[in-house]
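User: Predict DUF6534 domain-containing protein's structure from this.
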Amino acid sequence: MNASASSLLPEPANVVTKSGPLFLSALFHWGCFGVLCTQFFIYMGGFARDPLRNKLFVYVVFTLEVVQTIILTKSFFDVFGYGFGDPGAYDRVGAIWFSVSFLSGIVACLTQMFYAVRLYKLSGSYRVPIVVSVLSVTQASGAIFNAIVLKNAGLFSRLPPKSFKASNLIWAGGSALCDVVIAYFMTRYLWKRRNEAMEPTQIIVNRIVRLVLETGTITAMFAIILLVLTMLPDHISYYQVPASILAKLYSNSMLALLNSRSMLNAPADMECMPPVPTRTPLTVLRFVETFQDPGIVAVKSHNGYANSVDERSESTGVD
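Assistant:
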C-alpha cells in the first residue's frame, strides 16, 4: 500500500527550488499590494481635486495591479491548493505568462512614461523624454516577448534557454537602464531648480530628490536581480520572486511621487527660517501649472517675488 502510494507520488528532485520561490513570491507580492492600496487611498483622500488625467492614470494603473494580484493569487492557489502533493503543479506556467510578464511590462511602461512627462515639464526639452520613452517601449516589448515564450512552453522545464534569456535581457535590462536614466536626469533637473529656489522650497526639493533616487534605485536593483537570476543554469526558478513584485514596485514609486506633493502644503522643516524672497525678482506674470486644478493660472506676488506654493509646485515638476 505504501509502495503503491510512493510510486504514484514520487518525491521530486529539488522540490524546495521549485516551491520555495513561488511561496516567497506570494508573500512579497501581497505585501507590496498592501503598500500599494495604502498609497492609493492616500492619493484618493489627499488629492480629490487633481486633474482628471492624473486620476484616470492612477485608476488605470491600480486596476491593472488588482487584476494582476487576482490572477496571480489564482495561480498560487492552483499550485498550493488544488495542486497540493502534485509535483507537476510547480512546473506549470498557467496564467503566469500574463499576470507576471505581460502586466509587469505594461505597468512599468506606463510608470516610466509618467516620469518621461515629468522630465519634459522640468527640462522643457523632448530629448531625454524621447530616450526614456524608447527604453520604456523596448522593455515592454521584451516583457511581451517573455510572455509569449512562457505561454508557448507551457512548463517551466520546457522553456527554450536562448529565447527565455534573450527576452529577459530585453525586459529586465531595458527596465534597469530606463530607471537609471530617469533617476539621473530627474535628480539633475530638480537639483538645478533647487539652486534657483528659496530655502523652504530647497528643503522640499531635497526630499523629492531623495525619493526619486530611492525609488529609482529599488526598481533598477530588482530588474537587475531578475536579469541575473534568469541567467542561472538548470531552470532554477528564483527569478520568479523579483518578477512577481516588479510591477508593484513601479506603481508604488509612481504613487509615492504623486503623494509627495502633500509636502508642498506642509512646513518644509520645523526649524527652517521663514520664507524669504528668491534672488530673482518676478517682473512679469509667470504661468505655472497648479496641482489642485487643471489649467494654467498666472501668479504674481505683491512684492514682485515668487514666494508661493505654486512656485514650489513648478520647481518639483510633479503634478
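The chain has two domains: 15-265, 286-316.
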